[in-house]
Design goal:
This protein has three helices and five strands. The protein is α+β, with helices and mostly antiparallel strands. Strands 1-2-3-5-4 form a five-stranded antiparallel sheet, with helices on one face. The longest helix is centred in the middle third of the chain and has 17 residues. It is globular and about 40 Å long. The structure holds adenosine monophosphate and zinc ion. The site of zinc ion has 6 residues, from helix 1.
């Protein structure tokens, strides 16, 4: 069922505590942990506890939780004392999405080029 944990999903396993992660913040609806392959001094993933394949499907089903993810992205940046930061939602394999559980990348702590690659 939509939103239910998926047995083959890495991020559902992190939410369940079955796979270790460096968790830096948790709320009732979200978990934030450091990316295992950081692309910036701050590279944190903020995920909803519920499983949706990407940010848009999450937003359709759970607009409130989508807002929680964005609020937590800001809290992560504040916690890492980043005045400027970038939030990225890779959507689809052509855009580099490799884990099909919605997640926000929060990137900060270095120069962030615009336009991004
Ligand atoms: P994406 O490529 O946008 O789907 O993002 C998935 C991200 O998850 C990548 O940046 C990976 O480095 C990261 N990642 C994969 N496995 C883990 C893990 N066990 N703990 C933390 N981050 C992970
Ligand atoms: Zn999942």
């Amino acid at each position: 069922m939509a939103g239910e944990p998926q047995a083959d999903c890495l991020f559902c396993k992190i939410v369940a505590g079955e796979v270790p992660a460096t968790i830096i913040r948790e709320t009732e609806t979200t978990v934030a942990f450091r990316d295992i392959n950081p692309q910036a001094p701050t590279h944190v993933l903020v995920i909803p506890r519920v499983h949706y394949a990407n940010a848009a499907t999450l937003a359709i089903a759970e607009p409130g939780i989508t807002a929680d993810v964005l609020r937590e992205a800001g809290e992560v940046a504040a916690q890492d004392k980043a005045e400027s930061y970038r939030v990225v939602f890779n959507t689809g394999s052509g855009a580099g999405q490799t884990v099909f559980h919605a997640h926000a990348h929060v990137l900060a702590g270095r120069g962030l080029e615009w336009p991004p690659g």
